[in-house]
Structure formats: structure tokens, C-alpha cells
Amino acid sequence: MTLKTFTAVLYKEETLYVAECPAVGTVSQGHTIEEAIAHLKEATELYLEEFPGQKFSKPFLTTFEASISG
């Protein structure tokens, strides 16, 4: 078994945390950050079982500023 490290991006929507793995495209959610990451890990592992052998590149994360009226 091989271990691979993936990036998780999290944000809060009302009462749930949403976790996303941009390299694979999997998304999950949970009531806590830990639960959202655990669900994302499970979803990602299931996806990779179904579609083995895919190559994934690490995402490039950056920030930008946007003007907001109001």
C-alpha cells in the first residue's frame, strides 16, 4: 500500500464544514473540521479504488484581492 499526500481546502457553510480535494475533485462535509476531513479521506480513497493509476499534480494555491461594492 502506498501513501500519498493530498491538499484539503475547507470552508464553513452555515452549520457544516465543506472539505474539498482539488487534485482529485472529491468533496465531503462534516459538523467539525476533523469530521469533514475524515469524510473527505474516505471519499478520496473510494474514488481512487474505483479509478486507480491516475496521476495527480499538487494544486497551486494563491490569493487575490477583489473589489466589493457596498
Structural commentary:
By secondary structure, the chain is of the alpha+beta class. It has a domain at 9-50. The protein is 26% helix and 23% strand. It is built from one helix and three strands. Strands 1-2-3 form a three-stranded antiparallel beta sheet, with helices on one face. The longest helix has 18 residues, at 33-50. The chain is flat. The N and C termini lie far apart (53 Å). The mean pLDDT is 92.
Summarize the structure.
The protein has 70 residues and is α+β, with helices and mostly antiparallel strands. It is built from one helix and three strands, in the order βββα.
Task: Describe the secondary-structure layout.
Blueprint (H helix, E strand, L loop, with lengths): L8 E5 L2 E6 L4 E5 L2 H18 L20
Number of strands: 3
| Helix content estimate | 25-40%
Main structural class: alpha+beta
SSE string: EEEH
Strand order of the largest sheet: 1-2-3
Q: What is the count of DSSP helices, taking H or I runs of 4+ residues?
A: 1
- Shape descriptor: flat
Could you give a short account of the major beta sheet? 3 strands, antiparallel
How confident is the prediction overall: mean pLDDT?
A: 92
In angstroms, what separates the terminal alpha carbons?
53 Å
Cα Rg: 14 Å
